[in-house]
Design goal:
There is one protein chain. A 10-stranded mixed sheet has the order 5-4-1-8-9-10-11-12-13-14, sandwiched between helices. The protein is globular and about 50 Å long. By secondary structure, the chain is an alpha/beta fold.
Length: about 300
């Protein structure tokens, strides 16, 4: 199965490291790490680290967009982006010695109707029964909250498998298209149902089953250090978080999505896919910036994943 990642609002991610962030004062940085980012691009990076292949698509513009394309070339990740007139954004992540993360994300460029139509044509041409599309991340200016829903509806008639990782109104509308996979975090799941967040796993699983009844195929609910809950029509199980030496949580959810996409594309059983997803997300928090973990670390962590049936 071919994997196509769709990043409508990519970025250059600049992670700056300091001892303590002091607002209103001079802050001297200990380190600066620059990575190409955006959730779909992070997914492609994780797939490549696992030994898989994907096609990265979306919008890039200006010199920043050129840097993203060159970086992906250097990583051997195939791409087919639509060029836009406005430069791609740069996001700044501030990481202090307590591993506390402060994110300063730019809103992104404005995408026009003709540019969106060009991307829709690219995705429609790539659609087919052997294609898995991963739609993830925030939306740029000029693109409505129904955009993911529109794109899912364009590729599904060709038999494509769809994976959604978004939030807010974009998530709410796209879920109605019945994607095969979704990966909300716990807050996003409760927000969708208009309920106050709790840590009652049976309640979380119950909400997921309601989404299955609405046409969603399988669900992974990420919960940070608490692990993740995986729900399918056949079962529901909790995988507790793995204790690791954490540096930054940036990209951990994207690594989980990448592992699920990779496992699905290579025909892994669902529980083996969940095991890989837990290992990649735990490995991701050991890196600085949005770099995926090494495959050797993923394999070591996978052996420590446990399952609790619900």
């Amino acid at each position: 199965m071919r994997i196509v990642t769709v990043t409508l609002n990519p970025a250059l991610d600049k992670t700056v490291v300091l001892d303590e962030l002091r607002p209103g004062e001079l802050n001297r940085l200990r380190d600066v790490v620059v990575d190409v980012g955006g959730k779909g691009i992070n997914v492609s990076k994780m797939i490549a680290a696992l030994g898989g292949d994907s096609l990265a698509t979306g919008f890039v513009g200006g010199g920043t967009g050129g840097e993203i394309v060159r970086a992906l070339d250097g990583m051997g990740i195939r791409h087919d982006f639509v060029r836009i007139a406005v430069p791609t954004r740069t996001n700044t992540k501030v990481l202090d010695r307590g591993s506390r993360l402060t994110e300063l994300n730019e809103p992104g460029p404005t995408v026009g109707p003709a540019e969106f139509a060009a991307l829709a044509d690219t995705l429609t041409a790539a659609a087919g029964p052997d294609a898995l599309f991963v739609f993830s991340g925030s939306l740029p200016n000029g693109v409505g909250p129904d955009s993911y829903r529109k794109l899912l509806d364009m590729v599904k008639p060709a038999g494509a498998t769809t994976f959604l990782d978004a939030d807010g109104e974009a998530f709410r509308q796209a879920v109605e298209a019945g994607p095969a996979f979704i990966k909300p975090n716990r807050f996003e799941l409760f927000q969708y149902f208009g309920q106050e967040e709790t840590d009652d796993m049976r309640n979380v699983a119950g909400l997921c089953r309601r989404l299955l009844d609405r046409g969603v195929g399988r669900i992974a609910v990420s919960m940070g250090a608490d692990g993740a809950l995986f729900v399918s029509p056949d079962d529901a199980f909790l995988c507790p978080g793995l204790p690791v030496a954490a540096h930054s949580s940036v990209g951990a959810g994207d690594s989980m999505v990448g592992a699920i996409a990779y496992g699905t594309a290579t025909g892994m059983p669902w529980r083996d896919t969940a095991r890989l997803a837990m290992a990649t997300s735990a490995g991701a928090v050991t890196t600085v910036g949005t770099k995926p973990p090494e495959r050797s670390l993923v394999d070591e962590l996978a052996g420590r994943v446990t399952f609790t049936d619900l």
